[in-house]
């Protein structure tokens, strides 16, 4: 047997398995591993502490773990619990090291904060020699034997990645929720959460026992190397990790403005985020770092934590609830998703009764049945999500409907789109192209504040318009006349007039918003922005190719979906059939404002009424100019930005003597 080759083969198979692309069956893997173990046992001179056979653990020891001094202190990270604190941190960095950057905008790397235990890994000549816990930050405990059992941790770095000398990196040992649930099945006393499970596992004195625990690892910090490495930034380190077979947590992003940092945190924990929902492991916030290592050093470290780094934390709330029922709702893409109804349950101060799951696979994965007790969780602004079934009562199973709950046409199932835990997601959908539920949702989305921002057209009106066959796409809205609107139930002359005016006021549509209004599957705000910024005009989008779409910075899967949509010819057939200038699609303009002016510093501005642009446009402007947006008029509000048709906010502001700005006055402040 060629021992080196066998070891390298096993390492390769293991890596492929871990990233969800297995090359061989488990049986084949185990067989070769057993052969190697037998061979090593017969040839003690060939035993290598980094052989894949070491993954199964070694003899237990007695006494305490050895304590070892850290080469560099293992500090904790300062926490922030609000966007304001996070913005203040970024602004401080811009002030300190902004001079290195264009527009004084420091580059930040933002990633998920994994809820586990930190570990420091030391490699010598490419081989893992020591793994230490954080300990008191100055010294840690030597848990090498246990860490070697974690399949994610490379025992030996791949050839060519590391040639010689010493290397130290840090990361987080964590456990997936499903892994813990499986492990608990074999235990008399189940462990309640993944973090305690990890903390207990890494301190086991019998590493053969640790090998049975489903421990995982993500790298997150580069400490030092005795040889130069080909990266100078946190993001560069993450890319390097890929070549070194070191797993890195998904969803990290490089941000160039404070606004982008907040948006990224929001992408993780904001109201509409599904990122956290789809992750198989626990997180408790985001970590924001100055991306460039040299600039990190320039900012330095404080007594207990680095100054260039901040943890944007979110509080988590949990509760248990009884499942009452499941019903199904149809979204704008035609996807039919389950809604789990529970007995009214209080969580984080609000009573909730239902939870939407993003796809039918989730319902099946959790195995939710009537009467089950489920654990629900709320983190950040995210609406509560179902974590798992804690007690199954063996009640009635909920099966996906074979007919659309709205139009009664047959449903179908498509599989595709891998999620964080490597599971293929099944989407249940209505096969009827003209399903009124789909159309209603699409139009609702199109008129919403974030897209076309057409005021005064509610869900009921849209429903009635779709039912009566007046509207088949958002473009039909622009063809509506007062006479047509008057035929709707509960309509009136004034109302009809107002609606037509509101629609016509939004005739000019920026390219990105136009794409968004069409409601192409998998193509949300960010994707539309990227496509618009790359292609600039609708004509260019019409003839886009797959490779050009990828150049615009959107992902492979989304590019495929978009290409399929383009090939279906909506832009060529449907769009061209509408009268010219029914709407005017404006070419993309780079509206990036010179950021971080402090023109609105200290101002807390509340926005109300109808303005010439969607509300988020003004929100962004206020934020990049150092101001703060408030959702209501309070004692802290310094200004009210008021458009047309203002409601109670205007009255309240006037009563409190808060200055009211028109849009023109607001624009003037920006000059
Ligand atoms: Zn339908």
Tell me what the structure shows:
A hairpin with a 4-residue loop joins strand 12 and strand 13. This protein is of the alpha+beta class. The protein is globular and about 95 Å long. The chain is 33% helix and 23% strand.
**Shape estimate:** globular
Going by CATH, what is the homologous superfamily of the largest domain?
A: DNA ligase/mRNA capping enzyme
CATH architecture assignment name of the largest domain: 2-Layer Sandwich
Q: Report the major sheet.
A: 7 strands, antiparallel
What Rg, in angstroms, do the CA atoms define? 28 Å
How many strand segments? 24
What molecules are bound to this protein?
Answer: zinc ion
Which CATH top level class of the largest domain fits? Alpha Beta
Helix content: 25-40%
Assembly of the depicted chains: single chain
Features:
671 residues, alpha+beta, Helix Hairpins, D-amino Acid Aminotransferase, Chain A, domain 1, OB fold (Dihydrolipoamide Acetyltransferase, E2P), 5 domains, seven-stranded antiparallel sheet, five-stranded mixed sheet, 25 helices, 24 strands, globular, binds zinc ion
Per-chain topology:
Blueprint: H1 3-18, H2 26-42, E1 67-69, E2 79-80, H3 83-97, E3 108-114, E4 117-124, E5 127-133, E6 139-141, H4 144-147, E7 166-175, H5 177-185, H6 194-202, H7 207-210, E8 215-225, H8 234-243, E9 253-255, H9 258-269, H10 275-278, E10 283-290, H11 293-299, E11 309-313, E12 316-330, E13 335-347, E14 350-356, H12 360-366, E15 373-379, E16 385-391, E17 411-418, E18 424-430, H13 436-447, H14 459-467, H15 482-486, H16 493-504, E19 508-510, H17 511-518, H18 525-535, H19 538-542, H20 546-551, H21 556-567, H22 574-577, E20 584-586, E21 604-608, H23 615-624, E22 628-630, E23 639-642, H24 648-656, E24 660-661, H25 663-669
Parallel strand pairs: 2-11, 19-20, 21-22, 21-23, 23-24
Antiparallel strand pairs: 1-6, 3-9, 3-10, 4-5, 4-7, 7-8, 10-11, 12-13, 12-15, 13-14, 13-18, 15-16, 17-18
Helix pairs in contact: 1-2, 3-9, 13-14, 17-18
The site of zinc ion has 9 residues, from loops.
